[in-house]
Write a structure and sequence with these properties.
mainly alpha, Secretoglobin_sf
């Protein structure tokens, strides 16, 4: 249950941020955020995609827990998520 609350908080945060941005900015932000979430550190999230936002301590705790869940995935599952991200980024470049 704790992990699902963290995921819900992260989803709500992303929704709020994306509502403030234009469509293209939102897509770019989301892809950068997702890439950093998959292969970066929580600190890289706050310095990179979330750098211009004031992220409170509860949201930081949720991000850290979500990152921990992602890092706990089996390597093949994480690899598949990264392949999906690469595919999506590649299809955006061609659009």
């Amino acid at each position: 249950m704790k992990g699902s609350r963290a995921l819900l908080l992260v989803a709500l945060t992303l929704f709020c941020i994306c509502r403030l941005a234009t469509g293209e900015e939102c897509n770019e932000f989301f892809m950068d955020f997702l890439q950093t979430l998959l292969v970066g550190t929580p600190e890289e999230l706050y310095e990179g995609p979330l750098g211009k936002y004031n992220v409170n301590e509860d949201a930081k705790a949720a991000m850290t827990e979500l990152k921990s869940c992602i890092d706990g995935l089996q390597p093949m599952h994480k690899a598949e998520l990264i392949k999906l991200l690469v595919h999506v980024l590649g299809s955006q470049d061609g659009a």
